[in-house]
Amino acid sequence: MLGVRSSNHLCFYDWENLRLIRRIEILGEVADQVKTGLWVGDCFVYTTAHSRLNYYVGGEIVTVAHLDRPMYLLGYIAKDSRLYLSDKDVSVVSYQLQLSVLEYQTAVMRRDFDTADKILPTVPKDQRTRVAHFLEKQGFKKQALAVSQDPEHRFELALALGDLKIAYELALEADSEEKWRQLSHAATMKSDLILAGECLGRAKDYAGLLLLASSAGSLPLMNKLSYESTQNGQNNVAFVSNFLLG
Fold first, then answer.
1. Which of these, 170, 60, 46, lies nearest to 104 by C-alpha position?
2. What does each C-alpha distance from 18 to 5, 11, 89, 222 come to in angstroms?
3. Per residue in 67-117, pLDDT tens?
4. What is the Cα–Cα distance from 28 to 7, expressed in whole angstroms?
5. How many CB atoms are located within 10 Å of the residue 244 CB?
6. Is 203 helix (H, G, I), strand (E, B) or coil?
7. Residue 42 CA to chain centroid, in angstroms?
8. pLDDT by residue (tens digit) across 122-178?
9. Helices of type H across 56-140
10. Which terminal Cβ of the chain has fewer Cβ within 10 Å, N or C?
C-alpha cells in the first residue's frame, strides 16, 4: 500500500494498480507516539507508547483507558461496541466503545447537526452526559444543555447560556441555597429583580435581599423582605426594611 499526504488529506493507494483505497481528511495531528491503531468509522483508535488507549475524532483526543502494560489492538466488534486488545502473552482484554458515540462526535466535529440529531436517540442515556461534555468543550453549550442527563451540569450550562427558566426549574428540584444564590446573581445581571429577590429569599439570604431591594429602590422587593424577615425571625433586617418602607 502506498500512502500520499497533502496538507488536507492522506490517501492510500494499491501498490500494484495505484487504485485509491481510502482518503482521510486531516484535521489535526496526534502528538503522542502511536504503537497500534485502527479505524472505527471516521475515528482513529490507537494505543500509545505511554500505555494509553485513546481515540481521535475531528481534532479531539479522548482517553478510553490507561493500560497497566503494553497492549496491542486486535480489532473492534461493532455489534458489541467493544475494542479487543492483547498483550505479548496473548492475554486478551476488551473495552467498551460505543459506536453511536463515535458517530455522533464525528457528526458534531463536521458541524453536521442534522445527522447528529438522527444519531442521538441511539446513544445510550448513560453516555449522553459524556457526549454533552464533549459538546460543551467544542463550544456547543446549547446542544450540550439539551443532551446532558446530569442536573448539576445542566444547571451550569443554563446559567452560562442565560436560560433562567431552565435554571429556575433545576434550582427548584435541587432546592440548594448555593444554587439559589447563583441564580440570583444571574437574574440580577439580566435585571430580573423579582426573580433575583425570590432566589435570595429561598436562599434565606436576607442581608443580600436587603441590599438588592435598597440599591434597586424596589418597593415590591422591600415589601417581600419585610414580610419574610419578620416571618423567619430576622428582626434586624425586618426593622431596617420596615424603617425604609416608612
1. 60
2. 15, 11, 38, 81
3. 999 999 999 998 888 999 999 999 999 999 998 998 898 888 888 999 999
4. 10
5. 15
6. coil
7. 21
8. 999 999 998 999 899 889 999 999 999 999 999 999 999 999 999 999 999 999 999
9. 99-109, 113-119, 125-137
10. C
